[in-house]
Specification:
Layout: H1 6-42, H2 47-62, H3 65-78, H4 85-111, H5 114-122, H6 127-157, H7 169-180, H8 183-215
Helix pairs in contact: 1-2, 1-4, 1-7, 1-8, 2-4, 3-4, 4-6, 5-6, 6-8, 7-8
Length: 216
């Protein structure tokens, strides 16, 4: 490790962590939008939409994220579609995130007491108005803590993208370990970096859970 100072190592890891954060935010935001669409289909009451959304959730929850990334990155390339590691990682993590968020949010919607549905129906509100004015505001309150908690899982799941060549925190650590022959030091720093990214989110999720539990 003679040609690498500790500051050079930290600078390289910080650069990798920057891409980890960027990928996490893209996956979380885009996955949240897609998950909301899947949620509405899941609770729509339309049999076809319910079955389709349920199949979507089960496919992406029931298969490994790594396999999904392989299919997107290598499978599309075999079909003649040029897919960069960045795009494959973003799409794969978005689909993965959307399936889990849709199921988390479905549980939150179903946690709203049935009496709230009945009361809103008695006011002659249609389904869309019930969801918008009565159910979703209450479900949102329940969903905040588990949603923030799941963001921790998204951050850690970005490490899988290193397998397809996306240079995030884990991939950067692997390259540095190969260059310095100091894997214990490098991956120890990588672990600390993940901890510094995830632990504040875990604390915040715990705070929100306590706060809203007390409010209820």
């Amino acid at each position: 490790m003679t040609q690498f100072s500790i500051w050079a190592l930290l600078d390289s890891l910080a650069s990798g962590a920057k891409w980890t954060v960027a990928l996490s935010l893209i996956a979380f935001v885009c996955g949240g939008i897609a998950g909301l669409i899947v949620l509405f289909a899941r609770v729509s009451g339309n049999r076809a939409l319910t079955m389709l959304s349920k199949a979507y959730i089960e496919i992406f929850q029931g298969t490994p994220l790594l396999m999904q990334l392989f299919i997107i990155f290598f499978g599309l390339s075999m079909l003649g579609v040029d897919v960069s590691a960045w795009l494959a990682a973003a799409v794969g993590l978005t689909l993965f995130t959307s399936a889990y968020l849709a199921e988390i949010w479905r549980g939150c919607v179903e946690a709203v007491p049935k009496g709230q549905w009945e009361a809103s129906a008695s006011l002659a509100l249609n389904y869309r108005e019930q969801m918008r004015h009565v159910v979703l505001p209450q479900a949102l309150r329940i969903a905040i803590a588990p949603t923030v908690g799941f963001l921790v899982q998204v951050v850690k799941s970005t490490a899988v993208a290193s397998i397809i060549g996306f240079t995030e925190l884990t991939k950067t650590g692997s390259m540095l370990a190969n260059a310095t022959f100091q894997p214990f030091l490098i991956f120890g720093l990588v672990a600390i970096a993940y901890f510094l990214l995830c632990y504040p989110l875990s604390l915040y999720a715990r705070h929100l859970e306590t706060q809203y539990h007390a409010a209820r």
